[in-house]
């Protein structure tokens, strides 16, 4: 039964990835916004932002890149909701369910496609950051840890995207959920230290998931030892993933019932 599920999921993921490769503009547009944010903050606003002892364009892009990577993921998962909504409205899921394939394979194929597409987008954004002066002292182990956190964060947000993809009444409704997620890094330590924020904003910034994730990735890139932030980040990612997965599966069962 498990082998049947994996084979079906792989086949449907291949189908979904072909659609992405035929319209690469989805990956390009996902990468354009975070790249534009990097250009704006580094070359226009970066000189006016004090992030601590280090200063200048190079050090500031080192500081801000983790937050930009999370913005890229938040922007990318909106396309997951679009693709899923389109398949639901087009009756593709009904066709798949009439075939002798694992019923959840169609859903997992969209999740895995989101993961692959977002990883490609992250590579593009990181490549541009390197051209802009980003430098890292991270070891191979630290890079693997960064990739692991980004994969976990992508999966967590993707399962959130599945819910509106299944339940939205319109294509605009399917993608609108992503706007607060894209905005969330701006209310964190992604671009400025939380110490510079006014009281209520600082409290929110220090207790929302993006700050701990950004701080962990920043420390890993800098080759510094990570503190308790990594455990807070992992708890947030796993917690969001589990909760979103449960609600997504409930919505999916109601749709196919």
From TrEMBL:
Q: Which domain of life is it from?
A: Bacteria
Check the record and name the PROSITE patterns matching this protein: ABC_TM2 (PS51012)
> Which ranges does the record mark as transmembrane?
26-45, 65-85, 106-134, 140-162, 174-192, 230-252
Kindly list the GO CC terms recorded for this protein. ATP-binding cassette (ABC) transporter complex
Using the record, list the residue span of the signal peptide; answer none if the entry has no such feature: none
Transport is among the record's keywords: yes
Q: Name a Pfam family for this protein.
A: ABC2_membrane
Q: How is the protein disposed in the membrane?
A: Multi-pass membrane protein
Give GO terms: molecular function aspect only: ABC-type transporter activity
Q: Where in the cell is it found?
A: Cell membrane; Membrane
GO term, biological process aspect, one? response to antibiotic
Q: InterPro entries, per this entry?
A: ABC2_TM, ABC2_TM_bact-type, ABC_2_transport, Nod_factor_ABC_transporter
Q: What is its main location?
A: membrane
Domain ABC transmembrane type-2, residue spans = 25-255
UniProt entry keywords in alphabetical sequence: Antibiotic resistance, Cell membrane, Membrane, Transmembrane, Transmembrane helix, Transport
Q: Which PANTHER family match?
A: NODULATION PROTEIN J (PTHR43229:SF2)
Of which family is this protein a member?
Belongs to the ABC-2 integral membrane protein family.
The protein's name is: Transport permease protein
